Amino acid sequence: MATTVEEQNRAVAEIAEGVHRASSEAQGGAEAMCRVAGASKDARGAAAEVKALADTLSVEAECLNSEVHHFLKDVQAA
């Protein structure tokens, strides 16, 4: 009877260790997911900034193109 109780105790201890290990791994996975979410948020913010700068650059390029076109028209007319 004592041997059976010891075997059961060992089995329960192994199960508890497995549950603890699984819990630790799940926590590590959750923390990694939080880091990925933060990095994704940062990347979206950077992408929005790049888009805004690209839009500004596009407007500036259109203005420059228009000014060059008018300048060349004036030179041609002269």
What does this structure look like?
This protein has one helix at residues 2-77. By secondary structure, it is an all-alpha fold. 97% of the residues lie in helices and 0% in strands. The protein is built from 1 helix and no strands.
Features of the shown structure:
about 80 residues, mainly alpha, 1 helix, about 0% strand
Give helix % range. Answer: over 70%
The averaged pLDDT comes out at 95
Secondary structure class reads mainly alpha
Q: Largest sheet, if any?
A: none
Quick summary:
The protein is an all-alpha fold and 78 residues long. 97% of the residues lie in helices and 0% in strands. The radius of gyration is 33 Å and the shape is rod-shaped.
What's the SSE blueprint?
Blueprint: H1 2-77
